[in-house]
Each structure stands twice: as structure tokens, then as C-alpha cells.
Design goal:
With 407 residues, the chain is an alpha/beta fold. It has helices spanning 27-43, 47-61, 71-77, 95-108, 122-134, 144-149, 151-159, 174-187, 205-213, 215-228, 243-249, 279-282, 320-328, 338-352, 358-371, 391-398; strands spanning 16-17, 20-21, 67-69, 81-85, 113-118, 137-143, 163-167, 192-194, 234-238, 259-267, 284-288, 291-295, 331-337, 379-383. The protein has two domains: 26-57 and 95-210, Rossmann fold; 61-92 and 214-402, Rossmann fold. It has 16 helices and 14 strands. The structure holds pyridoxal-5'-phosphate. The site of pyridoxal-5'-phosphate has 18 residues, from helix 11 and helix 15.
Amino acid sequence: MATNIFNCPLPDEKGYFGEYGGAFIPPELQTIMDEITASYEEIRQDPEFLEELADLYQHYVGRPSPIFHAKHLSEKYGADIYLKREDLNHTGAHKINHCLGEALLAKKMGKKKIIAETGAGQHGVALATAAALVGLECDIYMGEVDMAKEHPNVVRMHILGANVIPATHGRRTLKEAVDTAFENYLKDPVTQLYAIGSVVGPHPFPRMVRDFQSIVGVEAREQFQLMTGKLPDNLVACVGGGSNAMGLFTAFIDDESVAMHGVEPAGRSLDIPGENAATITLGKPGVMHGFKSYMLQDENGEPQEVYSVASGLDYPSVGPQHAYLKDLGRVNYGSINDKEAIDAFFELSREEGIIPAIESAHAVAYALKLAQEPDVGTILVNLSGRGDKDIDFVVENYGKDYGIPQD
Ligand SMILES: *Cc1c(COP(=O)(O)O)cnc(C)c1O
């Protein structure tokens, strides 16, 4: 690998970014997390592992993903807008970057099976893909309601050889999928590895997932300088758990001239609890899902119900490094609502011929607003995924407003 992407100073050895992060888990799980941490420490310095991962990034994922200068949007909105094309990766999003890393780690640790929960099925499909390639069994836990809603992704996982295990209690969505996955993980944490899908969860996952994703920023920093002779003035990325944003930001953190913007989902309303998932914008520090960060809580201190038109962004907490960067003031966190995201979804499709994931459309919408401010300079947007998964939903719910014939 041209640059060693795995040498960030934070977190500390206990997994803290300032006061955020750590591991708030039962003792029996701590032993397992310690083993994962130790194995990760080993592989991240192992030239053979790094070589293997770099080779897969190039020949399997199709890295480096290009940077594209969106000239029509630039002209129309008044600043030069560039897109880092993670939508062109195999499986259509950035998630494959960390799923491959986690699958390779599981293999090196002698695990037989890799497991995870999934909401809309995007993490499930990326992990099932990595498991097929690396040669591991794969169990994906998914709420029954989500399975019906996201049927094509369930079929994809089956074709890839994964087991999709329904969560049948409660509201039968993501939270119940997490419960079921966790219960089964605790029954056999020795032969299985739980592959967390973003820069969240107990240490070492926020660090490990960030490290695997940081290839995005390492490539972008070099590519952008080759294209323009300078660093970008602004970086923009959507923030659900925060992995694609940390992937882009990490390589630029020490570049003081580069402003960074994280974009949260304002959903239908920022004023009504449960109608958004703007965790940093509206949340407070607290502990949830094994780590400390900003979180949205209800009056009982339980995770708040959250909502966004982008199912990849509706998480009531956020990666601990984002909480840290927020307090430091190094990253600006803003929000984009459903309507603005859908507008940007069509705008990018029609101006540049690129259909983005609705998650990524939040970052595009933010960039279009930023571009209209005076003297903003250049803007590099992380286009985290492609929109094929979203087209039926968008046309059914919004097509009429955008001139799409209804049958
Ligand atoms: C899952 C997903 C996200 C949100 O996850 P992060 O960890 O915040 O990056 C964003 N974009 C796409 C396309 C996704 O699939």
C-alpha cells in the first residue's frame, strides 16, 4: 500500500476519542473484544495482510474509485463541485471497503462464520459478498418487516450463500435484528465474528472500520491534487453511523485549510422527536450499543425512535470520533431534510447522469447549498453509493412531482 493508512493517533488504547468511545459491555464480551483488538493490532502491521487487502481493493472492488468534476452542477450553483465515486465500487457503495477488512480479519482469527444485523439490507449484502469471496459462512439478522420491504436485498443475500435470519419479536425492524444477532453472538463468540457495519459499537470497531474506510480519503487527497494542483477547500459527506465520512475525512484531518462538513438527516422535521435522525445536531452525550457518543434519547433515556427517507442514515447514535470532532470544532455538522435530499437525487441524475443513493443525495444537497455561498472555493463530495436500490421507492413516492409518468 502506497501510504500506511492505519497510523492515526486516536483512539487511545482503551478506544477513547477524548471522552467518547470506549467499550461498555459485559465482562464475557470484553475478553472477546480484547482478542479482536489484539488480532487487529497484529494484522494492521502485517505486510502480507496489507498486500492482500490492497490487491482486493484494486482487482475486486475496482479501486481507486475516480473523482469526477461535476461541471454542470458547478456552473449552475457557482462553485466547483467534485464527486468521489464510491458508487462505482463493486456492490455499489463504500461498505464493501470495511466488510472485506472484517472478513479477512475473521479468516485470520480462525473464525468460521461472520454475522451482522442489517436494516435495509445494504450492510448484509456487502458482508455476504465479502464472506463468499473470503470463504466464510455468513448469518445476517434482519427484522421481518424489513425483509418484506427490502425483498431484493434478501434475495441477493440468499444468492450469495448467506443465511438470512428473521427477527420476529417487537416491531420486527432494525432494533430487534440487533437484539437477535447479539443474543446469538453471545451463544458462540468463539467461532463467529460480529462484523459491525459502521464506525460505531465498542472498541475496536470505530477505529477498525475507520481504518478500512480511510482508503477513500488517501486516494482522494492524491487524486484531487493531481487534478487541480491543490487540496480541496471543502469536504462533504453524509453521516449515518459515520463510516463514509470518516473514510474521506481521516486523510485530511491535519490539513487546516480543508473545511469538513458532516451531513445528518433532518427527515420530516427537526422540531418533532422521532421525525429525524440528526444525532449530533440535536442529541446529547450518552451510552448506547456499547459506546459513548452523542445520542438521541427519549424521556426514559432509551434510544429515540428515528426516521429518515434514507434508511442508511436513521441511527440514533453516531460514531464516537464524530462526537469528538464536533466538540473540537474540526468538522461542521449540518442537516438536510427529506425534500432537499430528493431534490438533489433528481438534480444529480438530470444534470450529470448519476443516480445517487438517497443517503449520498443528502451530501449532494448540502454541497449545492454550500456552493451558493460567497467564496467557498472547491467542494469534494463523497458519493457514498449508487441509487439503484432506491429507484422504485423514489418513483412511487415522489415521481409525480418530478414529471415521471404514473401508471
Ligand atoms: C450505509 C450507507 C450510508 C451510511 O453509513 P455511514 O456509516 O454513515 O457511512 C451512507 N451511504 C450509503 C450509500 C450507505 O449504504
